[in-house]
Structures are given as C-alpha cells and as structure tokens.
Design goal:
The structure is a single chain. By secondary structure, this protein is an alpha+beta fold. It folds into 2 domains: 170 residues, Alpha-Beta Complex (Adenine-n6-DNA-methyltransferase TaqI, Chain A, domain 2), CATH 3.90.220.20; 213 residues, Adenine-n6-DNA-methyltransferase TaqI, Chain A, domain 2. It is 39% helix and 17% strand. It contains 16 helices and 23 strands. A hairpin with a 2-residue loop joins strand 16 and strand 17.
C-alpha cells in the first residue's frame, strides 16, 4: 500500500500470528478432525469436522483450536481458496490434514477474521501461488513466504468493525450467489417445458388456430390433426462404426473426421477435441458417415439417449459405434422437430424404461425404430422448430448472463476484501489506539515470555 489509512501500520504476518503452533491434550479428549475435503472455499462457510479422540489424531496431523485460521498450502486446494476460521470444535480443539497451515493470532487484539480476510485476498493467493515450490502437481506454499508476507494492520478496534462489516456484506453476497446458482436448474426446466409444449401442440396453438385435442397412449394429448407414428415408419435407423482393429484416432487433420460420443451433446456436435482417422481406416468404415440434417441419438454410456441434429460442418463425418443416426426420411419430416421430440422428457422417460428393461444398458436399433413419434403436418413441424429455436436462444442468452454473473460474484467478494484491506470498508475513528502501539505491545509480550516456556506444550 502506497499510503496507509490513519492509525494503520505495516507488519509481517508472523508478527500478527504464530504459524503452526503445537499443542497437546489428554488422549481421551474428544476433538474435531478436519480432512482437506471438509475445508470450505467460501469465506463465511463453517468448517466441517468429524469427532475423534485426541490420541488418534495428535500425531501426523496439523493441530489447531478454536480461534485459529487454517488454510490449504498445497495445489490446487490453495488456489481454490480452502481456508476457514476454526470454531465450534469439540472441546475447542482439533487436528486435520498435514497440508494445512495454521495461523493463531498473537493476541486477543488481533482479529482472526481479519487474518482470514488477508488469507482469502487476491494478493495473498496470487503471490502464494507464484512462490510455490515442489514438483508439478504437488506444489506447496513455503512456510517462509507466509511468515514474511507483509500486511496492512488496522487498529484493533477497526479490525473488529471490519470483521462485522465483512460478515454483513459477504452474507448478502452469499445470498445473491445462491440465487444465481439456482438459475441453471430453472433454465433446464424451462427448456423441458418448451419441448413438452412443442411436442404436444401447445406451443403452436395460435398458429394452428382452433383444433381439438385427443388422448394418446403417450399419456398426453395431441391435436386431432396430428398422428402417432414411429421412428421406423418415418425414417431409416442406422448404427455407427467402431475403428478397425489396430487403428487409432489422431488430432492431425487427415480430412476424415470421426465423431465420438462425447461430442454429441446440447443437440449438436461439439467442435471440442475433434479427432480424425487415417485414410486407410476411412476406406474400411466409409459407409458409416452422417450427412447434415441427420438426427443422432446416443445408444450406450452415461449420456444414453442424447439426441440432436448433425450440423452442416459435420457432413460426411464418420460416426461412433456408440450412437445411431436417423436418416433417409420416408415422409416430410423436420430434423429439428424430430430431435426436439427425442430430447423431450416424455421420450427420455420412455428411453430410460427401455434401457432398464433390457438385458444390457444399451438402446438397440430395433427399439429406436419402435419409438413413438407425434407427427404433425410438415408446415407445423417447421413452425414448432422455429419457436423452439427462438425460445432456446433466449434461454441461452440468460445462461450466458448467469455465467457472467457468477464471475462477477467472485470479483465482488474480492472487491469487498480489497476495500477492507485498504481501510475503505468502514470509517476510521481518531479515538482508536494506533496499530503501531498494539504491535509494540504484542512484541513486548512475546519477548517477555522465556523461549523454553513458549515451546512448552499446553494442557487442559
């Protein structure tokens, strides 16, 4: 900081807190045990713990007690912000992962929550990551970096005011974050509602004008002008092809792209991680290609039943054996309408039933051909596809805004912490004792305690 607020001082972190202090208690004492998985990344989230006897966790684990601040020192946990104020432990004591650092305030005048703010700040996390040592994948923040890290220190009274303000503001941020994080699930339900309305004729009621509805075996009504058909009556169903024995996919663009099951998502073919086959392999599987406008459906794997339309850019790509294509339409049929039906909750539930009732977790081509399809006139299919595209585009825009808002929430938290560390979060009070006086008192108290006595283990 180029200019400190009135009453503030600069100090090393080890002047404010002891790093990894030792402690000991009766072996039968109930204590809290905190593996790394229990450490929160959110500023206000409580530290979770399991109960263990102190004797079972006192060795080979990092010791701490209520009032301490702990944080991960190893990648990627450090960068993810795993840190917490320790409170609420059984008997106020505990131990946890050896990959924790512990900071114990040197005095009751030092706010543990202010120290947590320092640890969670962008500056500390960024410099800590830059100073990590060790092998790739197992890098750690050095102890010396933590001890020597220079921090701004407010007066004790202002630290308390900052801590209270952080609680207030970050609680509001958490509420906002929870609401934003709930939106993707709402958008997912919105898309399913749009598809349900589309494949039952409700989405095009105004376009179609007056029309009666009739009951179907699909457990929902359709307009009287529609029919119920099957996939096999509407189009051909053909499988993909696995690579010939001894052949492997390559990232080198040979001109012969191969669509893998993992690329078939969100109603289209992802460009990410596109791989290719050799000309030799292509000659052996050349019959198993897709054309733009074909409808795909995955037939095995975790995402079985995913469906969509092959885009123009994927014309003549080879198709994985883990998917099937619906092609060579026998009647006027909109690819986008058929894909919408296959992605609807009505059909997806039927697919899951087919999978569970079969001998293997696979959607056979024969079963795909037998899948029912509500079949409107082609003009209405086109209108349905247009409406779905319009509503989905709106949902996509909302999703993009949600993603941007999530990033903004993280920046907002860091902005609040930055203001706290600059002295801009709460007003200064000229009546506060300057931090320099507090630091001198802490140093004097530390020097007054004989070294041997300071190293002596505590007991209860």
């Amino acid at each position: 900081m180029s200019k400190l607020p009135s009453g503030w001082e600069i100090a090393r972190l080890d002047e404010l807190a002891a790093l990894n202090p030792k402690q000991n208690f009766d072996d039968e004492l109930t204590a809290g045990f905190v593996p790394m998985s229990h450490a929160p990344t959110n500023f206000l989230n409580k530290l979770r713990f399991d109960e263990r006897n102190w004797g079972a966790i006192k060795k080979n684990y990092t010791n701490f007690k209520d009032g301490d601040v702990i944080f991960a020192k190893v990648t990627p946990c450090f960068e993810n912000g795993k840190a917490a104020l320790v409170e609420g432990l059984p008997n106020g004591v505990g131990a946890g992962s050896s990959e924790f650092f512990v900071l114990r305030p040197s005095s009751l005048e030092v706010s543990a929550k202010y120290i947590l703010a320092l640890i969670k700040s962008h500056g500390f996390m960024s410099e800590g990551a830059d100073n990590m040592t060790g092998a790739v994948g197992l890098r750690r923040v050095p102890k010396k970096f933590v001890e020597n890290y220079v921090v701004p220190v407010p007066p004790a009274a202002e630290q308390t005011r900052i801590a209270h303000k952080l609680d207030e503001l970050l609680a509001q941020v958490d509420t906002l974050k929870a609401r934003i994080e709930a939106i993707p699930a709402l958008l997912k339900r919105l898309r399913q509602s749009i598809l349900a309305a589309a494949v039952s004729g409700r989405l095009t009621e105004e376009w179609r004008q007056d029309d009666e509805y009739i009951d179907t075996d699909l457990q929902f009504q359709i307009p009287i002008s529609w029919k119920i058909s099957t996939v096999g009556n509407l189009a051909e169903v053909k499988g993909g092809k696995r690579l010939p024995k001894g052949e492997v996919l390559t990232s080198e663009d040979t001109g012969y792209a191969y669509i893998r099951a993992g690329q078939l998502k969100d109603g289209t073919v992802s460009k990410s991680g596109q791989l290719f086959v050799s000309s030799h392999a292509k000659s052996q599987i050349s019959r198993y290609i897709v054309k733009s406008g074909d409808v795909y459906i995955t037939i095995v794997g975790a995402c079985i039943g995913d469906a969509g339309v092959i885009p123009d850019r994927c014309n003549d790509f080879n198709l994985t054996e883990n998917a099937a294509k619906i092609c060579d339409f026998k009647v006027p049929l909109s690819s986008n309408y058929l894909a919408a039906w296959l992605r609807s909750q009505h059909l997806q539930q039927l697919i899951q039933y087919e999978i569970k009732s079969g001998a293997q977790g696979k959607l056979a081509l024969k079963r795909i051909k037998e899948l029912p399809v509500p079949y409107p006139p082609i003009e209405e299919q086109t209108e349905i596809a247009r409406c779905i595209e319009q509503f989905f585009a709106f949902a996509d825009q909302l999703e993009a805004k949600v993603s941007s808002a999530k990033s903004g929430i993280h920046q907002l938290t860091q902005s609040i912490l930055a203001k706290a560390l600059r002295g801009e979060l709460v007003p200064q009070d000229s009546n506060d004792e300057p931090a320099s006086v507090m630091l001198k008192r802490i140093k004097a108290q530390s020097n007054a305690v004989p070294k041997a006595k300071r190293e002596k283990k505590a007991s209860v």
